[in-house]
Amino acid sequence: MIRRLVPAVAVVALLAGCSDSTDPDRPVGDAAPGTLRVLAGSELADLQPILDEAAKATGISVKFSFTGTIEGAEKVASGAAEQGFDAVWFSSNRYLELVPEAQKRLGTPTKVMSSPVVLGLPAEKVKELGWDGKRVGWAEIAEAAGAQKFTYGMTDPSASNSGFSALVGVAAALSGSGSALDAARIDAVAPQLKQFFSAQKLSAGSSGWLSEAYVRRARGEDPGTKVDGLINYESVLLSMPQPLTLVYPSDGVVTADYPLTLLTSASSEAREAHQKLSDHLRGADVQRKIMETTHRRPAVPQVPLDGRFATKDLVELPFPGSQSAVDGLITTYFDQLRRPSRTLYVLDTSGSMQGDRIEGLRQALTGLTGADESLAGKFSRFHGREQVTLLPFSSGARPALRYEVPQNDPRPVLDQIRTTATGLEASGGTAIYSSLRGGYDVLRQQIDADPDRFTSIVLMTDGENTGSEGITDFQLFHQSLPPDLKGIPIFPVLFGESATTEMEQVAKMSGGKVFDARSRSLSAAFKEIRGYQ
Q1: What is the pLDDT of residue 2?
Q2: What's the pLDDT tens digit per position in 223-249?
Q3: What is the DSSP string of 278-339?
Q4: Are the C-beta atoms of residues 396 and 350 closer than 8 Å to each other?
Q5: What is the per-residue burial (b if ≥16 Cβ within 10 Å, else e) of 419-451?
Q6: Confidence of residue 22 (pLDDT cuts 50, 70, 90)
Q7: Would you list the DSSP string of 35-87?
Q8: pLDDT tens across 91-109, in order?
Q9: pLDDT, tens digit, for every residue of 141-159?
Q10: 190: how many CB neighbours lie within 10 A of its CB?
Q11: For residue 178, what pLDDT is reported?
Q12: How far is residue 145's CA from residue 225's CA, in Å, rounded to a whole number?
C-alpha cells in the first residue's frame, strides 16, 4: 500500500530543551518529588511539549537521559540503569525482552503511541518504479534496490531502532516463513538482503539526523551525495518539509509501540508517578494531540486515525525469537550485507595530549578492535571489509597507516591496529588543517581504486591549531575539491581545549556532525560516531 504525503512545517526536533542530562553515563541523580527519571531513545525528545503540559496537569515531570537501543539494553541488563533511573522508554521493548537479565528488571509497560518503519520516496520515483497505486512487497523493493533503481538512507541498526526495525522487517519478510527468524533463515535470505542494502547510500546514528541530512542534501546545502528516499519511522517521514510518498510493504512492517516501562527497582513514589503520567498520556485528548504534533498513531482505540494515515491496518512481521538471532543478523549486516565503509582517523598526538589524554585515545581505538567486550562495543568494532586509515599528527602529519579488515579471520589485522594504537606517543605542535588536508591525498587514492564505500573522516584534536594553515585556508581548499571528495563528511571530536567554533564550521561545510568528548570518554564518543560511518 502506498500513501502520498503533504508537506509538514518542519522536521521533527531532536534533543533541544529535553533534559538537564542527555548522557546515559551521567544519570539525572536523585529524583525530586514528582519527577520520573527516564532512560530513553532520543526520538522521544519531540514529546517534550506534551510532557511539559502533562507536568502542569499532573505534577509529574519527566527527566530524560538518552541512549541507543543496544546500549540501553545493556544498561538495564547490568543493573546500571537502576542506579539513576525509574523507568525506560524506548521505541520498543522487543530487544530488551530477549535479554534475560534485562527482561527480569522490566516492570509494567504502558504503550503510549505507535509508528511503523516504512520506505519514503518522492512521488515521481514511485511512478517511475511502477508502484503508484500498487501493492508492493519487500522482495520487489529489494529487487529494485539491487538494480539501483532507487537509493535510500537508513540508520545504523545497532544504534537506532528505526534501522534495527528495518533490518528485522526486511529479513523477516524475505524469509517468507511467517515465523521468527533464526540463523538458518538469515543465511538463506542473505543474497536478497545484500541486494537490498546495496542501494543504501546514507547512514546515521539517529533517525532525526538522517532526515535532516536528507533534507540538506536535497536542498543542496550539504555536499554529500543525494539519495532518493529514506527508510524511517512513519512519523518522521510525515514530518518532512517536502512531500514524499510512503510505501507500506504488503507483506508487513515492524512497528515501534513506545512502551513507557517502569523498572522493577522503582520506588513506590516512582510507581505512583508512572501510573499518573501513563493515565494522562493515554487520555483521548492527549492521544489526539500526540497524533497531531508528533505524527504517531494513538495507542487507544477510541481515538480514530486522521486522514494522514490512509493505511489503517498493517501486517506486523514476526520478531526474532532469541537474542542470538538478532545479534547474528546485526553482525551479518555489518560484515556481509551493507556497503563496506572507509574511515580516515586524523588524530591529534601533539604534546598537549601527554598523560591521560593520549591514554584515552589509545583506549578508544583499541576498543574498536574488539577490546571493548560490551554489547555496544561488539557492534561498534571495526567491521569485516572495512578500510581503516590512521593519520596521527602533531607539528605535521605523520605517515598514514592503512588497514583493511578481512571478512573472514579479521583478528590479525585488528591486532595490527591495536598495536599501532597502543604505540601512539604525544609530542610537538597541533597542525590541524595541513594534516587534515593531507588526508584527502590518502582518500583520493583509495576512492579511485574502490569508489563504492561509505567514506568518512574522524578528526580528533584537544586544542587550537598551531600550524601555518588555518580554518580559512582549509575552507578554500575544501571548496576546490571535486564532488566525490567534497561530499565526505567530517566528524570532529571536541576534546580538551578544542576550538569549538572552528570544529563546527568544519562539520557544517562537509555535511558532518560534531561529537563532544569533553565531559565523557573518547571511547564513548568514538562508539557513537560508528553509527554514522
Answers
A1: 57
A2: 998 999 999 999 999 999 888 999 999
A3: HHHHTSHHHHHHHHHHH-PEESSTTS---TT----S-PBPPPPSSHHHHHHHHHHIIIIISP
A4: no
A5: ebbeebebebbbbbbbbbbbbbebbeebbeeee
A6: very low
A7: EEEEEE-GGGGGGHHHHHHHHHHHS-EEEEEE--HHHHHHHHHHTGGGGT-SE
A8: 999 999 999 999 999 998 9
A9: 999 999 999 999 999 998 8
A10: 16
A11: 61
A12: 17
Q: Provide the grid cell at 197.
A: 542494502
User: In whole angstroms, what separates CA 527 from the centre of its chain?
Assistant: 11
- Report the alpha-carbon distance of residue 279 to residue 273 in Å, rounded: 10
CA atoms 268, 48, 103, 297: torsion sign: positive
Q: What is the pTM of this model?
A: 0.89
Rounded Cα gap, residues 492 and 461, in angstroms: 8
Tell me 526's DSSP state.
H
Chain centroid to CA 148: how far?
A: 24
- 3-state SS assignment for residue 523: helix
CA distances from 429 to 124, 351, 440, 457 (A): 53, 6, 21, 21
Residue type at position 421: A
The answer to whether residue 46 scores a pLDDT higher than 90 is yes
Where residue 347 falls among pLDDT bands split at 50, 70, 90?
Answer: very high
For 393, the grid coordinates are 599528527
Q: Which residue has the cell 598495536?
A: 419
* pLDDT at residue 290, as a whole number: 98
Task: Give the chain's mean pLDDT.
Answer: 91
Q: Which residues contact 193 (CB under 8 A, 6 or more apart)?
A: 142, 170, 171, 174, 332, 333, 337
More confident residue, 14 or 286: 286
Round to whole Å and give the CA distance between 187 and 200: 20
- Tell me the angle at which helices 48-58 and 268-281 cross, rounded to the nearest 10 degrees: 110
Contacts of 305 (CB under 8 A, 6+ apart): 291, 297, 298, 312
Q: How would you write 137-187 as a 3-class SS string? A: CHHHHHHHHHCCCCCEEEECCCCCHHHHHHHHHHHHHHHCCCCCCCHHHHH
